[in-house]
Write a structure and sequence with these properties.
The chain is mainly alpha-helical and 158 residues long. It is built from 6 helices and 3 strands, in the order ααβααββαα. It folds into 2 domains: 81 residues, no CATH class; 63 residues, Winged helix-like DNA-binding domain superfamily/Winged helix DNA-binding domain (Arc Repressor Mutant, subunit A), CATH 1.10.10. Helices cover 73% and strands 8% of the residues. It has a 3-stranded antiparallel sheet with strand order 1-3-2. The longest helix has 38 residues. The chain is extended. The protein starts with a helix and ends with a helix.
C-alpha cells in the first residue's frame, strides 16, 4: 500500500470519528435546549402537538386539517382530534372550506394568536437573558459564528 494512502485513510477515519462525536454531542445539546425552551412556556397547558399546530397556523395561516396532518406526519384523524381540542379551548376556529364543504379549515383565534406570541416572548426572554448572563463577549461572538454553521448544516440540498 502506498505510504500516502495509509496516512490519508487514517486522517479520514479520524475525521469520521470526530464527526460522529460532534453529531452525538450536538444532538444531546439541541434536545436539552428544546426541552428547556418548552419549559419556558409550559404554563400554557398545551401538549407539544397542540403548541406545534398553533405555531403552524400562525406561520401559514388558515389550513385544512389534512394539510396540518401532512406537515406533522400524523393521520388526519389524529390531527382532527388535536384541532378539536384547540377549538374547545377557544384557540382555533374551524370553518367549512368554501370550495369543498366536506373539508374544514382551521385558523387561529385572537386568543390563540396571543398565546403563540406570549410563548415565543417567554422563550426569547429566557434565552436572551441566559446568553447575556452566562456568556462573555467572546463566547457570544463564537455562539453567533456557530449559528451560521448550524444554518449551513440545515441548508437544503442533501
Amino acid at each position: 500500500m502506498p505510504r500516502g494512502a495509509s496516512k490519508r485513510s487514517g486522517r479520514e477515519l479520524g475525521r469520521e470519528r470526530r464527526s460522529e462525536a460532534i453529531a452525538s454531542d450536538l444532538r444531546a445539546v439541541a434536545g436539552a435546549l428544546v426541552r428547556r425552551l418548552r419549559a419556558q412556556s409550559a404554563g400554557q397547558g398545551l401538549s407539544v402537538t397542540q403548541g406545534t399546530v398553533l405555531v403552524l397556523l400562525h406561520r401559514a395561516g388558515q389550513s385544512t386539517v389534512a394539510e396540518l396532518a401532512r406537515l406533522e406526519h400524523v393521520t388526519p384523524q389524529s390531527m382532527g382530534a388535536t384541532v378539536a381540542s384547540l377549538e374547545a379551548e377557544g384557540l382555533v376556529a374551524r370553518t367549512a372550506d368554501p370550495e369543498d364543504a366536506r373539508r374544514w379549515n382551521a385558523s387561529l383565534t385572537e386568543k390563540g394568536r396571543r398565546l403563540v406570541l406570549e410563548g415565543r416572548a417567554a422563550r426569547q426572554a429566557w434565552l436572551s437573558a441566559a446568553i447575556q448572563r452566562r456568556l462573555d463577549d467572546d463566547e457570544q461572538r463564537r455562539l453567533a459564528e456557530a449559528i451560521v454553521l448550524l444554518s449551513k448544516l440545515l441548508a437544503e440540498g442533501d
